[in-house]
Amino acid sequence: xxxxxxxxxxxxAPEPEQPQDAAEDAAQPEDGAQADAASEPAEEAxxxxxxxxxxxxxxxxxxxxxxxxxxxxxxxxxxxxERRRRARSRHTGPAKPTRTPQERHAERVEVRRxxxxxxxxxxxxERAKAAKRRTGAPAGAEDLPPVHAPSGGTRRMRRGVVxxxxxxxxxxxxxxxxxRHRRYEKIVRSSSTVHAHDENNEAHEGDVVRVxxxxxxxxxxxxxxxxxLERAR
Length: 233
Prior knowledge:
The chain is of the alpha+beta class. It has helices at residues 8-12, 20-48, 59-67, 80-89, 101-135; strands at residues 157-164, 170-180, 187-197, 208-213, 221-230.
């Protein structure tokens, strides 16, 4: 539908005017709101800014302070030569005078001589202290056995059957061993052969003898005859 034409009365009617005081009152709240909105960011920026005596913390430090201590980097492991090289590179004082190889060798010899004299004096001092302690020890203390006294172990003794007496002053003994298996509990039988020293040729083939462990008597003999328990029939 087409718009209806306005009547002459409506076209000529002027718009009602608001009083000037009411317009000023309506504009004042808007100006105050703008002023408040402008002052709030300024106050926030003033609170966030650090004080004069304090420096701004870097973001890494702030994160570390919130969550805990920052992970420490592992210390760099340097050799003694590398440490000396770095110390020389950081030296800022006057440089030492140039020396010839002979002068450097003489300095090294002098340092070694000084260290040797100190070691010698230290050793003499320690020896004097040890002698003083020995002389001041109570009577009868030296008669006590040492803490780590050498202990004479128990020599092994075995019982076996002579299987050969052909060699001079030597017998071959078979030692039979029967033991129970740790897991299966079955009797496991085994035997070993040793050569024993028989000074008087007392044992013969088939005899039951007792032998004892001894020092090496030859390339294969590590045992000696003790006595004959049973004679062969």
